[in-house]
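pipeline/complex-builder :: batch 7 item 3
reading input block
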Amino acid sequence: MSTILAVTIGIVVVVLLVLHFANPSNKFDINQISAQTLLTAAINTFLRLFAAYVLSLVFSIPLALLIVCTPRVQGVLLPVSDVLQSIPVLAFFPVVIVFFTASHQFEAAAIFIIFIAMMWNIVFTVIGGLQTIPKDVQSAALVFNVFGIRKFWYITLPAIFPFLVTGSLLAWAQGWTTVIVAEVLHTYIPNGKLSQDLLGLGSLLVDSSAQGKHAVFAATLGIMILLITLINVLVWQRLLHLAQRFKFD
Amino acid sequence: MCWSGKGCSIWPRGLNLTNPEPPIAFKNVNKTYDIGSTNYVVKGYTLSINQGEFFCLLGQSGCGKSTVLNMIAGIEKPTNGRLVKPALVGMVFQSGALLPWLTVEDNVAFAGRMLGFSKSKTAKITKQYIEMVHLQEFTKRYPRELSGGQRQRVGIARAFATESNVLLMDEPFSALDPVITDELHEDLLKMWQETHATIVMVSHHFDEAVKLADRIGIMKEGVLQPIMTVGVKRPRDEDSPDFLAEVKKIRQIMEG
């Protein structure tokens, strides 16, 4: 039952992602915000976070594996990663914006900045997870001829699952913080206009606050809290519970 | 004797009793680690372990006995010398090395799945070895729901489920209480006699070595002492004078 539910949710999210990026609905007027606009904003923000999260997973897990499994690389990449993750993501947002606005990829700019904010949480928790796999379990894998991709699938991925969940939880928390500014592009684009903002909960919060639209601000904040709570209860709490089964003693 | 009551043919371990070649043979094997200077962990190791034999490596912590076992398992490679070892071994680890996300049944089946056994063969041997270690009622439990002794039983079943003719055991009972250890000793001896497997076990308990092994190899600082053949008839009574004399002999070698 839970598998069917997860697959259904997955399909819905993928369809929404395709529809969103094929025909982005980012036009909005802060003076005319309807319930439908709020709903679209919530979906847009969620999809941006989701796309950034998927990118983070795809990038972070191989990077963490490379750092832990290759001692020579570890000596270089670990300190470099440590320095990079300590740079505030918004410090180089203007540079990112200049790069992406050259090709009018505003959506990509927002997702990229959320991805940068998310990924270090996953990289470092996965590194921690990889280092906790017991030596005996690694030896058992060797004895049972479990190498390469099979080792990753049957041993490594389940073993780091609890850490992946924790890292993802932190990444999404970071993502929610970053999305508020990532959608308000006009403040980073030279001579930017309000119309260059991406429709989302972040941009609605900032723009409604700036324009003194208190009702819109309150409604947006309420939807954001509701969305965060729903994701926490329906996804993270369940995954945290499931992760207990994957922990070594 | 076929103690399972289901016929001995259910464990076709590929055993060739007419083949006199020892499955494990070390000839002048060294294992060193470079830590500024060359440090010998195993030095000039020469040993043959016979087919169907129960061999125990005995020694204090850090004497190199686990390194010898790891070389047989292919986990570590000798620095030099000649080592003949089987392509496939079953191995029982001190910690059990079970996968916490798999049930008892799936942990035992893991070996067969990874070694490419068919589904039906994996299911059959999984069931058989779970029965051999008396865990039929715990097949759907996860390792965290088991006692230490039960976890080690799963580890033993998983090692036997590789269908390898050689089983390696790295201090498998050192973290268990004496009562559970005695039970596991009995079960292990039955499984060994049933399957004719060659077992190499690492231990630091003198009485455990005398109770289980045909021969004992005592190691001191990476060097193998003269091999000792246990001259006590099976089943072995730990309180018998012969048994106690063997234990005393080991103590003298260790302290000498």
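note: The radius of gyration of chain A is 20 Å.
queue -> next item
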